User: Which sequence fits this backbone?
């Protein structure tokens, strides 16, 4: 039986949004996968490292997919519910989870790690990444690219022409070089997202809070109803995400 707008809104508004696991969206939304397989490559690199740091680990779900970890393995996270979830998931694997505000400085000594990683960091402090890397160490990460999911964001906020240029991969590469890192590899991808009900939209905007800052169901109920009607009419709402894979290395000197 088809659910009403009110029922869908309630489902999206009451779903647990802690952690960085999006399995609640199964059957409600889909996103194309990147061609490079970040989790697989991350696992391979962790298996060769001696000391690793995963920045902004979320609930630790992606990091926990690794087959093994180096003797020293650390992850940072700022949001308390995610810290708790990551601790439960990663501590049994020997990974120490550190509560960190995602602002400089990172709470680690210079040259502490030979591998620093991150998947979809909200902020990127290149000088700190370079500082905590050992000479010859690697930063390996998947970043969100420019204008990602802006079809959805602009549905709620209107045109965002300046924000569309944020997270440009070439600009990030330039910032990494300015911090003393060498760009070894930089790949980009544009991926199709399909959203099948308004509950998925509410869930996403509650979880990815920087998409529509200050989002509440009550504050955006009219736009949510309009989006519900679009999905009812077309069967789907389509958006596009952008991603880039970054590999950077600290020089030996």
Assistant:
């Amino acid at each position: 039986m088809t659910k009403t707008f009110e029922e869908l809104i309630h489902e999206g508004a009451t779903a647990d949004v802690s952690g960085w696991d999006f399995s609640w969206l199964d059957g409600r939304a889909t996103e194309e996968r990147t061609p490079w397989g970040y989790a697989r490559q991350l696992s391979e690199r962790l298996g060769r490292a001696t000391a690793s740091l995963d920045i902004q680990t979320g609930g630790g779900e992606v990091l926990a997919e690794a087959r093994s970890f180096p003797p020293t393995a650390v992850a940072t996270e700022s949001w308390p519910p995610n810290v708790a979830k990551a601790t439960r998931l990663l501590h049994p694997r020997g990974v120490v989870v550190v509560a960190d505000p995602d602002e400089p400085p990172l709470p680690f000594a210079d040259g502490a790690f030979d591998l620093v990683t991150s998947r979809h960091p909200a902020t990127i402090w290149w000088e700190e990444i370079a500082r905590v890397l050992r000479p010859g160490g690697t930063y390996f990460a998947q970043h969100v690219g420019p204008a990602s999911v802006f079809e959805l964001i602009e549905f709620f906020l209107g045109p965002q022409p300046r924000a569309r240029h944020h997270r440009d991969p070439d600009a990030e590469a330039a910032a990494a070089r300015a911090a003393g890192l060498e760009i070894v590899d930089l790949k980009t991808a544009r991926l199709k997202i399909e959203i099948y009900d308004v509950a998925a939209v509410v869930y996403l905007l509650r979880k990815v809070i920087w998409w529509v800052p200050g989002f509440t169901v009550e504050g955006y109920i009219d736009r949510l109803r309009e989006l519900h009607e679009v999905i009812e009419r077309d069967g789907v709402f389509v958006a596009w995400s952008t991603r880039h894979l970054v590999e950077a290395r600290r020089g030996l000197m």
